[in-house]
Amino acid sequence: MTYVIDRRLNQRHKSTVNRQRFLERYRKHVKKAVDEAVNSRSIRDIDKGEKISIPTRDVSEPVFSHGSGGEREQVHPGNREFIKGDQIPRPPGGSGGRGSQASNQGEGEDDFQFQISHDEFLNVMFDGLALPNLVKRHLAGADVFKTVRAGFSQEGNPNQINIVRSLRSAHARRIALVGKDKRRARALQAQLDELNEDEDAETARELKNQLEKAQAKVKSVPWLDTFDLKYNLHVKYPVPRSKAVMFCLMDVSGSMNQATKDMAKRFFILLYLFLKRNYDRTEVVFIRHHTSAKEVDEEEFFYSRETGGTIVSSALYKMQEVIEDRYPVDQWNIYGAQASDGDNWNDDSGTCYELMCEKIMPLVQHYSYVEITQRDHQALWAAYEQVRERFPEHFALQQIVEARDIYPVFRELFQRKEA
Amino acid sequence: MKREPISTGSEWTFDLIDEYDREIAKIAAEYRLDTYPNQIEVISSEQMMDAYASHGMPIGYHHWSYGKHFLSTEGNYRRGQMGLAYEIVINSNPCIAYLMEENTMMMQALVIAHASYGHNSFFKGNYLFRSWTDAESIIDYLLFARNYIAKCEQRHGVQEVEAVLDSCHALMNYGVDRYKRPAPISAEKEKLRQKEREEILQQQVNDLWRTIPTREDRRKGTEKLNFPREPQENLLYFIEKNAPLLEPWQREVVRIVRKIAQYFYPQRQTQVMNEGWATFWHYTILNTLYDRGLVTDGFMLEFLQSHANVLYQPAYDSPYYSGINPYTLGFSMMRDIRRICEEPDDEDRQWFPDIAGSDWLETLHFAMRNFKDESFILQYLSPKVIRDLKLFAVLDDDEQEHIEISAIHDEEGYSLIRQKLASQYNLGDREPNIQVVKVDRRGDRALYLQHFQHRRRPLGDATEEVMKHLHRLWGFDVHLESISAERDGGNPETFRVPASA
User: Fold this and answer.
1) Are residues A398 and A252 in the same domain?
2) Which chain A residue has its CA at the smallest distance from B112's CA?
3) Same domain (yes/no): A186, A308
4) d(CA A248, CA A272)
5) Backbone torsions φ then ψ of A381, nearest 5 degrees
6) What CATH number is attached to the domain comprising A325?
């Protein structure tokens, strides 16, 4: 007796839970590997999976076993040259050519290596980070709704009638109210049928009378009552907004060299990946500026060179303009990220402060500024520090000196804060 | 004879699988293979890896170590370092066998013959499986275990449960009474009795630790009985019944691990026989198919190729050598038994007077039913197989400067090799012999264990770690003494947790 079953379409990844348990248990190792990978990787493949290796000692499952030493005797196949009584010097590093068996017992020194997926990589990378003010605009003035089924109700529109439920309820009501009479009517009818009408006319008339009464009672109960009607109930749920736009602002004046721009780019990419994980849809707007600002595409943003002075406020004006133009505040979560080497036209920093406080900050969820420089801070930093004092929740600024600072700085900016 | 092959291409279909299965079943019946009903499941390679990770159990509770197995299997497979096994078969009724969808028609037929008729009949016939496992209820029991552990996780937290499981897994090889036949597990009864058992167990434990002297004690005077009265080898059972601090649910978890260890116990002891038996039958059945003209020459060539791969035995000095291939040893012995029965020579008559010339099928079935690896080799390893495999024994004594060749495949060596190879498959020799000898009932409640050294072999490096797990389950101090039978005097090696200050 044989049954053949096709299980290919059954759920795969039965081991997912166990895999997660394992990653969870060795979180420390995984995290270290991921952090190293983020720092050393080129920008373009920052979000690929990663190979993790853990010392075998740490993942071993100990059991009682024999250690080396004592007397041991093993039978091996394939003898060519030995005869009984041969004395052989002990091979170095273990005895009797059992090298591969030693590692079978999990005592080899190789690391335990495995691959984690893209998603797991990002999970670990952004572990413990949170987007600030993610909730703020989720529900406020929400005007998009989703209709969801929510059981049944006694009231509703005729087009929402649930026929099955209504009839079931009517049936139940009828049974409850006249079930007894129906049974009685049936019994009477049976008696009447048995009775010979000619012989016992009196009884027959009596029975008929009762039968009519019972039948009338059954009839008096309506087949379908308004009381029975059941309606499908639908409830409206507000849909959290899940669109985000990210503004990348960068100084491209002569003082910014390619290395500085690369660092800025890494920062932007991290932020972009992070937003992408939190929102269904993420758009990016690139604004570059020297003395005047321009909205550009990604390629131009990162790779074209310009020279000239620096007026930061021009970029902020541009950003405000784009927001008003295309990204209504009630529909978009807006994030700003600015990178610069700290240079600014001296008089302009004051303008920047005013612009930020008056125009930009009320519109955005969060704004982060990174200064990529090895020199001392200039006027712009001072101005932005004042902005932070006014909006401590929504504004963050950090300095980056070397490429490997980027990730820690990023983590610091978005560290989950205890409420 | 006119050939009318069932199929000619290498693609398989469900109809073809059915048809091959029918023919194979017919042949198997002619050879008197008695099997459970078969359930053949076609799965993808990913699902095969899942099955691997859980040691082939179709349903398992969640534990990180299975995730670890999965990751390493997946890694090796992706890197191309290993192919997946062609089949996994589960000792249950019906007997579940997995076919991978990537296999060719030939492979599917091979796997059906190997797993669904070879292994299946072994599970049903061999005395170890008959007395240690209950094929009827294993799936139910695994389901019960999974649900119970999931419930514990909800109630007590994943980490709590994981810690207990870790400790139990460390002692999993010590969860069996080797010389006592257990009651087969049954999921139905488990469920019914579990609640009851929890309460009773807890009472008994408390009873054991009662300090108020009873009347019986007084009658016997001050002399106190050693507890346990006899050394206990089943550490998990001892802990389940006697550990003073375990919660009822923790006892149940210990029990689940113990029961699963029991289920796997026969498999660990019959590897050579089980694989040899299944390989012998896929070889015999597919050859019979060929003799009857049901498969093509191409099918046979492909089959012989993979058959030869399975039986590949590298020599001791090959870089690929990793011990004796159980398929090779088992298959050679099974084939040789048939040869001894059918065409015995003088040597065979001398070595095997009772089976030489007897009915081979009868003899083979008898061997399959009544032996495990150790006794099977001791009984049936013939000089011819020893010569064919060129077996030799190496003695490595740490007190000698050189290692010594203690026996080879010659007149003088046959019975020595046979004996040594058999003891190599003796679980008692492979695993350290560790037993509970004493519990300090009146004092600090410490647990005392002894390790009886086998040929002066000490305990491995992981011992300290295992002791910590044991300590976690027992809850009080744990002492382990390693005793050598041959060398008296000198301090025996001792382990204790927590380590003495």
Assistant:
1) yes
2) A2
3) no
4) 10
5) -60, -45
6) 3.40.50.410
